[in-house]
Amino acid sequence: ILASNDTDIMDFSRDTYSYMWPRDGALVAASFIKAGYSEISRRFFNFCSQIVDPGGYFLHKFTPDGSVGSTWHPWWKNNEPELPIQEDETALVLWALWKHFDRFHDVEFIKPLYRDLIILSAEFMVNYRDEKTKLPKPSYDLWEEERGVHTFTVSTVFAGLKAAANFAEAFGEKNLSLKYRQATEEIKKSMKLYLFNPSLNRFAKTAQMDSNGKYTLEMKLDASLFALWFFEVFEPNDPMVRSTLQAVHSQLKVKTNVGGVARYENDAYHKTVFDYVERAKIFRRKFEQKSSR
After folding, report:
1. What is the pLDDT of residues 274-291, one digit of tens each?
2. 3-state DSSP call for residue 89?
3. How many other C-beta atoms are found inside a 10 Å radius of the C-beta of residue 262?
4. 3-class DSSP assignment, residue 80
5. How many CA atoms, within 13 angstroms, populate the side-chain half-sphere of residue 35?
């Protein structure tokens, strides 16, 4: 499942969208599953089983032949090694795979994937967490821009481990199922404790851990906060979720006939030339006013 065969971005990025992002592929596969197209989702999951890293995670993106695609996420930064992944890409493959199994009940298809994809990835997600907070360690956000502990990513890890627990229970491994369910409970509790800002009454987009092991919350409104209810971490009518999404709707809704929702506040991606020109004019007027004084 490729993101797109569109080549428009060749003009400014010298690349295309002809890659398979595990996150995007999983979301599309979930739609095919809901529509009843089991053969398409099977092909996707078989492909995922061939490209998952032995460490239990998926890298940034892949070409149609399974090779690792181009990336701007470094393996080494500030003289320290770091894992250049978006952990939501690993989590959502398991989330979508459980949807497939729950819909089609094809045990013979799932059986070869159970140990080498499901359990492998679940073990990675359980272990790739901060020992103190129990939240996932930093990775890149779904927009592929910022490294940190993101509410969206944490929500998907919750969903991925919940799916793994369901699989383990279905395959009779109760100890593994309990292990993964305990991890989801720890993550949910920690989200309330570390990712919710009581003074603003909403969840943060991202948490950054400082050198003292404390999180600093980035409260920029982000459309990806829908993950709080979409991946069933919290109920849609939970007061914390309602207040968060009301703020998103208020600030990010596109108030035109076209409608829609912006990705996040001051998102520069594909901004119009008009917008940049107008901002330049405002900056110039302020500069001239300051100079005249």
Report:
1. 555 566 677 677 767 766
2. helix
3. 16
4. strand
5. 10
Q: Can you tell me the distance from the alpha carbon of 32 to that of 175, in angstroms, rounded to the nearest whole number?
A: 32
- CA 255 to CA 176: how far, in whole Å? 48
Classify 93 as helix, strand or coil: helix
User: What strands, in cross-sheet order, belong to the sheet with 206-209?
Assistant: 139-140, 147-150, 206-209, 215-218
The CB density around residue 149, as the number of other CB atoms within 10 Å, is 28
Strands 147-150 and 139-140: antiparallel
Read off the tokens for 270: 């594909």
Spatial distance between the Cα atoms of 137 and 208, rounded to a whole number of angstroms:
10
What spatial distance separates the first Cα and last Cα of the chain, rounded to whole Å?
A: 59
Question: What does the block give as tokens for 265?
Answer: 């506040």
pLDDT for the residue numbered 238: 98
Placement of tokens 């493959």 in the chain: 93
- The pTM assigned to this predicted structure is 0.90
pLDDT in tens, 220-277: 999 999 999 999 999 999 999 999 999 999 999 988 888 889 999 988 776 665 555 5
Give every CB contact of residue 273 below 8 A, 6+ residues apart in sequence. Answer: none
Question: How far, in Å, are 192, 242, 243, 249 from residue 238 at the CA level?
Answer: 12, 6, 9, 16
In contact, 167 and 114? CB cutoff 8 Å = yes
User: Residue 68's beta-bridge partner residues?
Assistant: 62
Measured distance CA(216)–CA(204) in Å, rounded: 10
Burial class (CB in 10 A: 0-12, 13-18, 19+), 226: middle
Phi, psi at 27, each rounded to 5°: -65, -40
Q: Return the bridge partners of 217, or none.
A: 207
